[in-house]
Design brief:
510 residues, alpha/beta, Urease, subunit C, domain 1, 3 domains, 6-stranded parallel sheet, 33% helix, 20% strand, N-acetylglucosamine-6-phosphate deacetylase activity, Metal-dep_hydrolase_composite
């Protein structure tokens, strides 16, 4: 990137986010504006935190000029399902996101969120990150607040009223809507009618619904049917989180699943999905045992045969014994000279006991499991109504948090030609904003926030893998968030211009 200034020191201050100058002009860029339209040569003018002009533009006196040298300028990418808020205070520069071109993360996923969201938003306003943050309100968090530790049952009418009131309050604060994690405690114990009732509260407040479904494997069809029913009965847009087929016996059935979703859409249900481009997931140990029976050898053997393998299940977090992190169940079993099934059950019971004894520990365990086929992932990525997510974190052993968006551009655009560059950018920007109810972001157009990424389509690539999960992506030149440069030439800046992103149509005071 070459920078020429009509005001030298003042111009540099503007480029880095100061209001000392009126504007910055990016010239010689190939603009992919996020709408899906073909790339075109254009200049883009930024004034404070907004794009103010796009086209054939002449420099103004005193304006900072950024020479893009023919690189692609796109809207900053929006991570539709993110956990990068966890421990974000340790890495407020969010280099793992900026290096991929991500400028907005959507958190509060899998039924887990800050409560109340208004207080969390106030905290972000006082101590902003380098990226923008939007959030759902978590069903599991609502349940925990209303029911405490006595959650392995349906909620009472009084508890339902409390959850609904908390959700309505969050919607007034700008929450995107309701998220569920129906394979996790405590959400797993919430019956469908409870979820529908809360979804209706979300709909009444202008919100949406997003779900880590009850099953991504054995009961996949029933789980999808539940999401469709929620969309139909509550009359709100619904999205399936990290759509996948996580059982070996059903690999190759992506077309069948997509046909079901298309049929629901044809019947008036606004159902969509987000996808990450990896054949392995990250979750907790107990997720493979939906009945939560930690003595069930048959269920554990099924899980280690049909849902993953001992060689494919790797410990990512294990508070009771951190020395096990990075090892597979097969490796631990070999060290103990034990059966992998018994080893898995023993670790799960050890984790549950530790969780009970240490309720203050936020994350007791996590595992990475190989489970999906590449053909199914590609089909889900290509679906017209899917957008891209990372499901990633700022720390951890799954590479998706550091590579998902760069991998889409490397694998599915450059190598496999599954998507055009314009289609991929659309999925990662304007389409995401539309599906999640985010206004004035995701498109390079006058009046939109100046969230921008300048990158080389021929070079952008993920570098993170299971052996190097925290390696930054490459090929991104410069990233602007709300008009301020947060990443330049492979290095994060000191700027922290991230804003709270509230639901489209939100107004102060509800």
């Amino acid at each position: 990137m070459r920078l020429s200034l009509f005001g030298s020191a003042l111009g540099l201050a503007c480029l880095l986010g100061s209001s000392a100058l009126a504007s910055t002009l990016i010239v010689h860029a190939r603009v992919v504006d996020g709408t899906g339209a073909a790339a075109r040569a254009a200049s883009v003018r930024i004034d404070k935190d907004r794009v103010v002009a796009v086209g054939k533009l002449k420099p103004r006196p005193g304006e900072a000029i950024v020479d893009a040298k023919g690189l692609t300028l796109a809207p900053g990418f929006i991570d539709a399902h993110s956990h990068h808020d966890r421990q974000a205070e340790k890495t407020p520069e969010m280099a793992m996101l900026a290096a991929q071109g991500v400028t907005t993360i959507v958190v509060g996923q899998d039924g887990e969120s800050a409560l109340p969201i208004g207080a969390y938003f106030d905290q972000l306003t006082r101590s902003p990150l380098a990226v923008n943050v939007a959030s759902y309100t978590g069903h599991g968090s609502l349940r925990a607040r209303a029911m405490g530790q006595d959650y392995k049952r349906p909620a009472t009418p009084a508890e339902m009223a409390a959850m609904s009131a908390d959700l309505a309050r969050d919607l007034r604060a700008g929450s995107l809507g309701l998220s569920t994690g129906l394979e996790y405690d405590p959400g797993i114990y919430g019956p469908p009618e409870e979820v529908v009732a809360l979804a209706k509260t979300a709909a009444a407040g202008g919100g949406r619904y997003i779900s880590h479904m009850r099953s991504e494997d054995v009961k996949l069809d029933a789980a999808i049917d539940e999401v469709i029913a929620i969309g139909r009965d509550a009359k709100l847009p619904v999205q399936i989180s990290h759509l996948k087929i996580g059982i070996v016996d059903r690999w190759g059935e992506a077309p069948k699943i997509l046909a079901k979703l298309d049929a629901a859409r044809a019947q008036g249900v606004d159902i969509t999905a987000d996808v990450y481009p990896y054949g392995y997931w990250q979750s907790n140990l107990s997720v493979l045992l939906p009945e939560r029976n930690f003595e069930d050898r048959a269920a554990a053997r099924f899980a280690l045969t049909k849902l993953t393998t001992p060689e494919g299940l790797r410990i990512a977090v294990f508070a009771p014994d951190p020395s096990l992190v990075g090892k597979t169940i097969a490796q631990i079993a070999a060290e103990r000279r034990a059966d992998p099934v018994e080893t898995y059950l023993a670790l799960t019971k050890q984790s549950e006991a530790y969780r009970s004894a240490h309720p203050e520990v936020e994350r007791v365990d996590a595992v990475i499991g190989s489970a999906m086929s590449e053909a199914d992932i590609a089909a889900f990525v290509a679906w017209k109504h899917s957008v891209i997510c990372s499901d990633g974190m700022t720390h951890g052993l799954h590479p998706r948090g550091f590579g998902a968006f760069a991998k889409i551009l490397r694998v599915y655009v450059r190598e496999k030609h599954l998507l055009t560059l314009e289609q991929a950018v659309h999925k990662m920007s304007a389409q995401t904003a539309a599906q999640l109810g985010i206004a004035e972001r995701g498109t390079i157009a006058p009046g939109f926030h100046a969230d921008l990424v300048l990158f080389d389509p021929a070079r952008i690539a993920d570098r993170a893998d299971l052996e190097h999960p925290n390696a930054l992506a490459s090929g991104v030149s410069t990233v602007w968030v709300n008009g301020a440069v947060v990443f330049d030439k492979g290095v994060p800046t000191a700027a922290r211009p991230g804003q709270v992103v509230r639901r489209a149509g939100w107004r102060p005071g509800g």
